[in-house]
Every structure is written in C-alpha cells, then in structure tokens.
C-alpha cells in the first residue's frame, strides 16, 4: 500500500520535472489524406512556438547541442515537444483513411474489388485501382499510410516532415552558408595616390 503510494508520488514528481512548466510546442497537421488514386497527397506538418506562433523547429541542433528555445528574440520561450502525436489521417485508429472514407475494406470501392468496370459489354480496367482490385492507398493492407497503422506519428517523423515546410519558408536566403566572399575585387581601383606630390610620376 505504502509502496504504491510512493510510486504514484514518484510518477507525479517525474511528470512535473518533465513538464517543467514549459509550454508544449504547437504541431499543425495540414492537408487531407488521399482517398482515391486521383487525389494528390498534400499532407504536411508545421511546428510553431506556442507563445509567439512563429515557425519553430523541433529539437533544433545548434553548436551547443539540441535546443528548444524560440528563436524570436522577443519571445525566447522554452518549449517542450511530445514524443508522438495522434495521426491526423486515421485519427489514431491506424486504419486506412481511404478505406474509412470510401467504406472499402482494403478492396477498391470503385470496382468493388473486381479490378475492372463492366458496362456496355466492355470491361476496362478500373481507373482507381488500375486493375489491382485493392485500395490504391493502402494496397489492400487496410493500414493507414501516414502512420503505417500505428495511429501515432513519432516526434522524429514530425520533425522530418516539418523540415520541408521550414525550408520552403526560408527559401529566399539559402538555409546554410552565411554568405561571405568577395574580399577580393578591390584590386582595380587600387591606390590613386593623391596628386599632391605631383613629382611621383612613373618613369
Ligand atoms: Zn516564440
Ligand atoms: Zn494514421
Ligand atoms: Zn485502404
Ligand atoms: Zn478498382
């Protein structure tokens, strides 16, 4: 009994230490899961400082190791990130979003798993599954394609996906290379000695 109590206390203490009063970073999943082969996959992830709402990188690696402090100089909030996030495509169920949306069960809704469409005496390949008879998103496995059926997106994956968005934001100035060059170039105009001396002509 007492032991249990201690364990609970410990757990609370641990949680408190972890949280440290830090606000949790904001992760926004954008775009919808594709449900047919025609849909483009436009899903992306963006990560933000919870305080000033500026884009922020998860576990940014700097010269002093990983840091999670907002880069906005007026903000500088220390931010915590969860270890994983509920998959936005399957709402954490791990189930193929296309199968859910189209009420198909791993087999193609369009041809009802036949692989072909039959009409007017013809049977062209189904344009959705291209004749595979299966859901083009999960290939018949019924697993969510975004989280691979786990229902969760790990922090590392979120970071990697968000990196694309970050780079797009910072497209104008290239992310690395602080741009230093041209300490030459000053040659041509070199010293035109002031004409005062006058007598210093070339011989
Ligand atoms: Zn901030
Ligand atoms: Zn999922
Ligand atoms: Zn599916
Ligand atoms: Zn089909």
- How many strands, which pairing sense, and closed or not: the largest β-sheet? 2 strands, antiparallel
Average pLDDT: 83
Task: Give the number of helices.
Answer: 3
Q: Domain count, please report it.
A: 2
Q: What are the distinct ligands in this entry?
A: zinc ion
Radius of gyration based on Cα positions? 29 Å
Silhouette: elongated
As laid out across the biggest beta sheet, the strand order is 1-2
Query: How many beta-strand elements?
Result: 6
Decide which structural class fits the backbone: alpha+beta
The amount of beta strand, in percent, is: 5-15%
pLDDT < 50 runs, ≥5 residues? 13-19
| Helical content class | 10-25%
User: What pattern of helices and strands is seen along the backbone?
Assistant: HEEEEEHEH
Compute the separation of the termini in Å: 105 Å
Spell out the key features of this protein.
203 residues; alpha+beta; 2 domains; two-stranded antiparallel ribbon; 3 helices; 19% helix; 11% strand; binds zinc ion
Describe this structure in words.
The chain is an alpha+beta fold. It has two domains: 18-93 and 148-171, no CATH class; 96-142, no CATH class. 19% of the residues lie in helices and 11% in strands. The protein is built from three helices and six strands, in the order H-E-E-E-E-E-H-E-H. The protein has a two-stranded antiparallel ribbon. A hairpin with a 2-residue loop joins strand 3 (60-62) and strand 4 (65-67). The radius of gyration is 29 Å and the shape is elongated. Residues 13-19 have low confidence and may be disordered.
């Amino acid at each position: 009994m007492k032991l249990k109590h201690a364990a609970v206390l410990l757990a609370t203490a641990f949680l408190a230490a972890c949280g440290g009063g830090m606000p949790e970073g904001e992760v926004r999943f954008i775009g919808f899961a594709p449900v047919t082969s025609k849909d483009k996959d436009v899903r992306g992830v963006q990560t933000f400082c919870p305080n000033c709402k500026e884009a922020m990188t998860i576990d940014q690696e700097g010269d002093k190791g990983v840091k999670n402090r907002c880069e906005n100089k007026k903000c500088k909030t220390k931010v915590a990130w969860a270890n994983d996030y509920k998959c936005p495509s399957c709402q954490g169920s791990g189930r193929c979003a296309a199968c859910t949306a189209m009420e198909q069960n791993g087999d193609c809704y369009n041809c009802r798993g036949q692989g072909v469409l039959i009409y007017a005496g013809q049977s062209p390949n189904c344009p959705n599954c291209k004749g595979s008879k299966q859901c083009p998103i999960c290939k018949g496995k019924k697993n969510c394609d975004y989280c691979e059926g786990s229902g969760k997106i790990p922090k590392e994956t979120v970071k990697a996906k968000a990196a694309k968005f970050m780079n797009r934001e910072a497209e104008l100035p290239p992310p690395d290379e602080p741009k230093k060059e041209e300490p030459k170039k000053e040659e041509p105009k070199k010293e035109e000695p002031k004409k005062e001396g006058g007598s210093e002509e070339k011989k």
